[in-house]
Write a structure and sequence with these properties.
This protein is of the alpha/beta class and 217 residues long. Helices cover 43% and strands 18% of the residues.
Length: 217
Amino acid sequence: MHKITDISMETDVLAENKHLAGHNNENLRSRGIRSVDIMGSIGSGKTAMIITLAKEMMKRGTNVAVIAGDVTGQDDFDRFQEAGIRAYNINTGKECHLDSLMVDKALDHMDLEGIGFLFIENVGNLVCPADFPLGADHRMVIISVTEGDDMVRKHPMIFNDSDIAVLNKVDLADYMEVDVKRIQRDYKAIKGNKELYLTSVRTGAGVPQLLKALDAD
């Protein structure tokens, strides 16, 4: 009986999160704000990628904001602020992911006037965030070659639940002795002909293609 109760509670939590995600999406769309939820491990390059994409968007006249999600601290928030990007910090405490309620509350406190695009940086994790959509137009997952060539096989759910996937730091692939083609094959096995974007923040490789995927080129 205890097990049945636990399953029922989990189902209710996920259903409520999904319902509120829809509300968040309506809220953002009603303001003309496009959005992306960015997931990935610590060290995959999420923050650097957001800064790179945001700066390109701002050059093209789009005002950008970021919600920075972390268990604790404000390191990423500070990096966004230093880069001249409007940001709001969320600390989840013991939670290993953002949820729709946290984002809903953040949107209530943010100055969204004139914002055209919102990045939501999830907690560094390739497991928990998969079950909790936040209401963004896109869900993007970022991995890097520094994490090895088995990341897709080990974490299929988050790739299955994302519409944009990125393999970052490809300029380091040879140094890390990582087989990029193997990672691409693993992704193809899950997503068919969906493209795995190969990027490097350091060299700028793949950034134009990623902007196009976000309808921001």
